[in-house]
Amino acid sequence: MTEEEILNRRRRPSLTVREMEKIVESLCYFHDEHGRMSEAQELVGMFAEMIAEEKDPEQRRLIDAYRNGVETQDGEMELDLDAEVSLGDDPGAYVMVWKWVTSSEADVCDECNGSLDDGEGYDGLCGSCADAAEEEVA
Predict the structure, then answer these.
(1) What confidence tens digit (pLDDT) does each residue in 11-70 have?
(2) Where does the source fall among the domains of life (predicted)?
(3) Which of 110, 118, 128, 137 pairs with 103 at a CA distance of 20 to 30 A?
């Protein structure tokens, strides 16, 4: 992933409704001579939409119902009480869960979290950590 792609990735912050309202209030006062107000207005709109979703009782009921529909397995897949829910256009939703991924499944070194493609590694170690382990034994 390029640096540009990383910087443009969407991330939804975990904020309370009160925190979002404070951000909106602060953004409404933000203005400078370089046209930044339009950027602030875009953020205000995004937060206002999230606040409205959180405060709508029917929306809350629906989102909670989808969260409750997720079957989790302790240690394999877990769900936060405030997990993100993305409603679909058709009946259904994506619910954000935590899935445990081992270092071997991710192809990262058990020791340093570096890439296993780094040299001649073995037993879950990258080349550098495997070399270091051999030096300790010798």
Answers:
(1) 767 788 899 899 888 877 766 555 566 677 888 888 888 889 888 999 889 999 999 999
(2) Bacteria
(3) 137
Range of the domain at 134: 101-138
With vertex at residue 122, the alpha carbon angle to CA 119 and CA 127, rounded to the nearest 5 degrees, is 25
SS3 readout for the chain: CCHHHHHCCCCCCCCCHHHHHHHHHHHHCCCCCCCCHHHHHHHHHHHHHHHHHHHCHHHHHHHHHHHHCCCCECCCEECCCCCCEEECCCCCEEECCEECCCCCCCCECCCCCCECCCCCCECCECHHHHHHHHHHHC
Total structural domains within the chain: 2
Q: Is residue 10 part of a domain?
A: yes
**Does some domain include residue 30?**
yes
